[in-house]
Each structure stands twice: as structure tokens, then as C-alpha cells.
Amino acid sequence: MRLKAVLRLILLLFLAASLVALVVKVLRSDRPAGVAGDAGAAQGLPGGDRLIVYYAHGKFRCRACNSLEEYAQVAVAGFPRELAQGRLEWRVVDYEEPGNEWFADRYKLPGPSVVLVCYRHGKPAQGEVLQAAWELLRDKAAAVEYVRREIRGRLEGK
What we know:
This protein is an alpha+beta fold. The protein has two domains: 1-30; 33-155, Glutaredoxin, CATH 3.40.30. The protein is 47% helix and 19% strand. It has six helices and four strands, in the order αβααβαββαα. It has helices spanning 2-29, 63-77, 80-85, 101-106, 132-135, 140-155, and strands at residues 50-57, 88-94, 113-120, 123-129.
């Protein structure tokens, strides 16, 4: 009887440790792999070519900021094939987190922003802040369509 209790405790501890490891992995996957130093950020496709859609934010996150992130994420989800192929990626970055400050400087962020970064041969080749997304914030459908249109244009090489 005592052996059963010990085995049950060991099993519960293993389960708890597994859940903690899974949560940590999920939380880390929301952070851009290449933010704290872009080396190797885009190696999923041969040659490392892809488009990464970043939602960049600071420590303080207002309701409008959260809405912008949601709309951008919905827009990215509209490209399931490209996501599955590794041609498109969604990442969230806190540009105020130590090691990520350069992100705001490099892309001249006015504040929380949706940033499209084209990677060529594994290196950031071109980045653009979608500032008009803020102007469309009161119209979710228009904001999502704007971000999708910009993504589609980059994916088609325009």
C-alpha cells in the first residue's frame, strides 16, 4: 500500500514538471527567436527566406495596444499555407525587455507597432512599420484587411 502512494506521488511530480516545462516552452515561443540578436532568426526555409510579422510592444499595454495585436494576429492567421510552409511567421516582442531595445531603434518605432520584416538568406533585408494600422483601429475588419494586404504584397514580392 505504501509503495502505491510513493509511485503515485512520483507520477504526480513528473506530471507537474512536464506541465511546467510545456508552459515555459509556450511562453518562450511567443518571443521572437531573432530579437535578442538576429542571427539565425529565419532558417526554416532553404536560404532562410521568409516574412516575419512582429507585434512590438513596451511594458505598458493598453486596451488599444492589445486590440492592435489581436487584429494583426487574426490577419496573419489568414495565411495558413504560408505559415505551415515557414514562409510566414508571427512573433511578439517586448522592445523594452533587456536585450531587445535595439528593435525599437532599428525600426524607429513610434510606440507599439506591427512590423513586417523580410528575411533574405536568413538576415533581415527590409522592415516596415505598418503605421496606418493605428488609424484603422476602430474598424477591426479594415485593420485586419490592411495588414493582410501588406503581408500578401510582401509574400508576392511587391
